[in-house]
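> example.struct
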């Protein structure tokens, strides 16, 4: 590779909200139920059924918008995104294109390269589609509409990320914020948080963006990192060979660690958006925004800064205190790991004062069994007297 290239990445993050019912009907959003048991005429697109907006969806969207420093649109509307696919019973998805609920925000991330603001273009509310289940033995596809109508917010970033490390840091920051708010559990493996990666490459110093592709089916941070590196290399190889990068949607195969073409990448005009005639505009008052803001919890980054200012303690102690202050195991481990990183960066010498203990019982007539301080049992020379 004779030239140097820069990767340009933007994300579309879909988050399933933690409401008990769907966005436009009273069906349950419970995960893992038998197929097609949480459905009704509204979420299966039956003629004559009318949607009614779930108020809690609007409040969760506002809460996430406020926590990510977005502006709240006090007058927003729903639009119909028209496309034909078996998991979309209405032949359109109710979303927001022209007047989304939140816009122009950003979150701060920190990587080895330092701190950086990742811009958020918009956050909009929409409904999820059903789930297609492909049966290779029967050579057919089945549809489960339990997920149809589950409320989503889509967080659309600016193309501000330049590496897989920045993408993971951004996703971890979003997940941390949303979990703190209680808006979603953000479990990638269950699909309650999904990220589509829009990626292009360009020569270092170039102002114009390259042709972007969209990567789907990314259900872990590991898959996202591998997909970014793989797509970057694929696009550079095409450019170096004098071929064009095609604007398309690609599906990532985690087992093969490679991607393949799904379809050509559509633009907004291809979906023939128009305002939904069955839903009234969402009007948000100043009082409603103030009420949602008053319920916002203290976020982790804010808590750390407060600890350092109020108690005049270093970063290490602040991380330890943050770990002690939460009962969330994932959050505790994140804080402990951050504390360890601080010690390692200081070239500190670590001497463990104790090991985890594992009590066990052994009969007096059993000889030769060996137990190591690391918790391993060895029975190779064990005898019974």
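> example.seq
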């Amino acid at each position: 590779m004779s030239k140097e290239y820069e990767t340009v990445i933007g994300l579309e993050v879909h988050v399933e909200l933690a409401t008990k019912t769907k966005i436009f009907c009273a069906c349950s959003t419970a995960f893992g139920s038998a197929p097609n048991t949480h459905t009704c005429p509204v979420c299966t697109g039956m003629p004559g059924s009318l949607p009614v907006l779930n108020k809690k969806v609007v409040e969760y969207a506002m809460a996430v918008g406020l926590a990510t420093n977005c502006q709240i649109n006090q007058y927003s509307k729903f639009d119909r995104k028209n496309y034909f696919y078996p998991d979309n019973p209405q032949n359109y998805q109710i979303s927001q294109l022209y007047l989304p609920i939140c816009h122009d925000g950003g979150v701060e991330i920190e990587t080895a390269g330092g701190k950086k603001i990742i811009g958020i273009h918009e956050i909009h509310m929409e409904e999820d589609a059903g789930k297609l289940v492909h049966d290779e033995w029967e050579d057919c596809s089945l549809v489960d509409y339990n997920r149809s109508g589950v409320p989503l917010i889509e967080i659309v970033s600016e193309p501000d990320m330049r590496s897989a490390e920045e993408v993971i840091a951004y996703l971890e920051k979003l997940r941390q914020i949303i979990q703190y708010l209680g808006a979603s559990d953000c479990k990638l493996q269950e699909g309650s948080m999904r990220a589509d990666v829009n990626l292009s490459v360009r020569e270092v110093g170039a102002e114009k963006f390259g042709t972007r592709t969209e990567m789907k089916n990314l259900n872990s941070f590991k898959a996202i990192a591998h997909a970014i590196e793989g797509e970057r290399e694929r696009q550079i190889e095409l450019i170096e060979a004098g071929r064009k990068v095609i604007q398309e949607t690609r599906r990532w195969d985690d087992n093969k660690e490679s991607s393949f073409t799904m379809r050509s990448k559509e633009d907004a005009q291809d979906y023939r958006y128009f305002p939904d005639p069955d839903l009234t505009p969402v009007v948000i008052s100043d009082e409603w925004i103030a009420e949602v803001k008053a319920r916002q919890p203290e976020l982790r980054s804010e808590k750390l800064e407060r600890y350092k200012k109020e108690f005049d303690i270093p970063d290490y102690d602040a991380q330890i205190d943050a770990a002690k202050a939460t009962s969330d195991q994932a959050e505790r481990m994140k804080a402990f790991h951050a504390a360890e990183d601080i010690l390692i960066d200081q070239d500190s010498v670590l001497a463990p004062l104790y090991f985890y203990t594992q009590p066990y019982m052994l009969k007096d007539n059993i000889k030769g069994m060996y137990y190591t301080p690391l918790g391993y049992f060895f029975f190779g020379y064990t005898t019974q007297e």
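> remarks
The mean pLDDT is 88.
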